[in-house]
Amino acid sequence: MNYLSLALTGFLLLCAMAVPAADKTTVILGGSLVNLDGGPALENSAVVIRDGIIEAAGPANTVPMPDQARVIDASGTWLIPGLMNMHVHLGLVLPGKMAVELADESEAELALRMAAAARETLQAGVTTIRLPGEQRHGDLSLRKAIARGHVPGPRIYSAGEALRITGGHGSEPDVTYHDGPYELIKAARREISAGADWIKIMISGGIATDGGDIAQALMTPEEIRAVVDAAHRLGARVTAHSGSPAATVIAVDAGIDGIEHGYFLDRPTLRQMKKAGTWLVPTIVVSQPATADFYQRIGSPPWYLTRLQSVGKAHWRALELAIEEGVSIALGTDQLPAEPNDGTTATAREAQYYVEAGMSPTQALRAATIEPARMLGADDVLGSLTVGKHADLVALGADPIEDIKALRDIRLVIKGGAVYRNELEDTP
Ligand SMILES: [Zn+2]
Fold it and tell me: How many angstroms separate the CA atoms of 315 and 309, rounded?
């Protein structure tokens, strides 16, 4: 047994009581069912959940009521699918005070920190996350522990460890580098065989390390093509950290599935992404002024803040252009989903930025629910309150289609039929 599984075993003993079991049958009664296709909400609805799956959803007076069900009174709330955040690092370490404090973090400590962040993620209404780069496979152990009901947390899709080239983004002590197509193919296969459903590659420089220019293509076309091909053959999808138009053009040509951040993306590059059906996960929240408090809190060094300021305006323009060009966008924050930001969570703030940059509230809500489900290839089971899908549901205190800021007011969180947060009248 390694330290990581030892830590998780210890942790689950401590918090076994914190994982609610899914009730056999639950009815969410009286809420307004938000229409993700843009029509009016269905008022006074009933959502019937059996064994973690949505069995019925419709007007309360037409849905047959099961016997002996737990009934949660959701009148006065708006029901949306559980939120999905596609760019999360549960074991995030950023330069500065935070990195110093965590310099000697053991695997056990890392696992506990990730499990705590997973629990807070659920509390923030986020029921599915994608992890594009974690350390020491803590993500894969945690996913197992959550699936077994040992610790509370969202559904996890993960890229395992991100693949980095020598001198590129993510150059830090203790990191393994992969140079050339063969090393990258081998590394991609290793991550997939360990359980990764995605592969993440660093194809341009980034903000958080000083390895390489953010706007430059650092990985060669041969390297990118090799990874994409090898991953696709094994059924995994590939996404790239990229701030660079040049690197993005190469990756899109190679058939990559997604681009993260896109700090300096221009209109021609975004048009190419739109044409190829490449996803963009903006993580706009990291580069905007409201996040300054966070960087101060974690003691970010001056070089980091300078690098951050250098991308803020371009990043915002790239997001506006991506929305204008109709690029498929899935919400991601690159901050912990529940991280306090501007009086709410990073996840809610990210969605609000999308509206400020040109999306309708419906589009922003889709970017936080059904669009990520499509990107994951899981829209048959996730992303909407539809019969047959997993019962992942959030109740809001206001109508998000009227004002996306309603995402700040979460009253109920259900994942797989289990209630993780509840401020409503409840008759178990
Ligand atoms: Zn990231």
Answer: 10
The DSSP string of 206-256 is -SSS-SS-TTS--S-HHHHHHHHHHHHHTT-EEEEEE--HHHHHHHHHTT-
Grouping H, G, I as helix, E, B as strand and the rest as coil, residue 130 is: strand
Q: Domain 17-82+382-427 in CATH: superfamily?
A: Urease, subunit C, domain 1 (2.30.40.10)
Inform me whether the pLDDT recorded for 99 exceeds 80.
yes
Element (H, E) at 350: helix 346-356
Total Cβ atoms within 10 A of residue 277: 10
Backbone angles phi, psi at 144, to 5 degrees: -60, -45
Please provide the distance, in angstroms rounded to a whole number, between the alpha carbons at the two ends of the chain: 40
Amino acid in position 25: T
Compute the distance from residue 334 Cα to the ligand 1 centre, in Å: 5
Ligand 1 mean position, distance from CA 266 (Å): 21
Q: In CATH terms, is domain 83-110+124-134+155-376 a member of 3.40.525.10?
A: no
User: 94 CA distance to ligand 1 centroid (A)?
Assistant: 10
Q: Are 86 and 131 in contact (CB under 8 A)?
A: no
Measure 249 CA to ligand 1 centroid, in angstroms. Answer: 20
pLDDT at 307: 81
Q: What is the structure's pLDDT at 214? A: 73
Domain boundaries, the chain: 17-82+382-427, 83-110+124-134+155-376
**Each residue's pLDDT tens digit, 344-358:** 999 999 999 999 999
Q: How many residues does the chain have?
A: 428
State both tokens at 341.
């930001």
State the distance from the centre of ligand 1 to the C-alpha of 72, rounded, in angstroms: 37
- Could you tell me the distance, in angstroms and rounded to a whole number, from the CA of residue 183 to the centre of ligand 1? 22
CA distances from 258 to 93, 132, 240 (A): 23, 11, 6
